[in-house]
């Protein structure tokens, strides 16, 4: 009886496109990418205050991007070992910690170290973990659209982040804005309990990487995504 009730309660959720998991994941992505995309706005205020060449802060941002890439497989492994929510929780805390300490950094080397922390935090709150949760929580019918909406949320964050930073910098010192951003990423903890999804099955966990790649290569949607992303990757690299 309890099983039938549970199934009847979960069935509507599976058939819905917009679910609490999708909304919560989108909120985290918007905040994470909004903050991440705004760092270029801080370059001039920081360089002018300390008299640094702009190359110093540019190097800090480059280190952030490097550790963003390094952190993604690390957080993926942590999610597999300890659960997605715990991995995202760690990412949020590292992100906020790096931002808060950046407000008190006065040397280029300090910013280099702290931007490494921020990069790891971005990896822990980015699309790698969030899309996995959204995908597992969506029905087969709605999965592609749910993933598209979550990805669009990350893009929205990149659009609103720099203008938001500019508005805040017009009223506050850059140190205060870093602290505000640390508070914003910590606010994403409020939606973290909603991020629940079915665990991967034993068969899925035991599937080899080669089998996954072969299945993806036969999927026309994967081919279209790859062709759409490849030119963007080249342009970013150049």
Please explain how this structure is put together:
This protein is mostly helical and 238 residues long. The chain folds into 2 domains: 19-199, Growth Hormone, Chain: A, CATH 1.20.1250; 207-238. It is built from 12 helices and no strands. It starts with a helix and ends with a helix. The model is unreliable at 1-13 and 232-238 (pLDDT under 50).
Relevant terms:
238 residues, mainly alpha, Growth Hormone, Chain: A, 2 domains, 12 helices, 0% strand, disordered N terminus, disordered C terminus
User: So what's the CATH class of the largest domain?
Assistant: Mainly Alpha
Order of helices and strands: HHHHHHHHHHHH
Gyration radius from CA atoms, angstroms: 20 Å
Helix content: over 70%
**What is the number of helical segments per DSSP (H or I, 4+ residues)?**
12
What is the rounded distance between the termini?
60 Å
The CATH topology name of the largest domain reads Growth Hormone, Chain: A
Strand % is under 5%
Residue stretches low in confidence (pLDDT < 50, at least 5 long) are 1-13, 232-238
Arithmetic mean of pLDDT: 83
Quickly count the domains. 2
Task: Give the CATH architecture of the largest domain.
Answer: Up-down Bundle
The dominant shape is elongated
Mind summarizing the main beta sheet? none
- Structural class based on helices, strands and sheet pairing: mainly alpha
Instruction: Report the CATH superfamily of the largest domain.
Output: MFS general substrate transporter like domains
Number of strands: 0
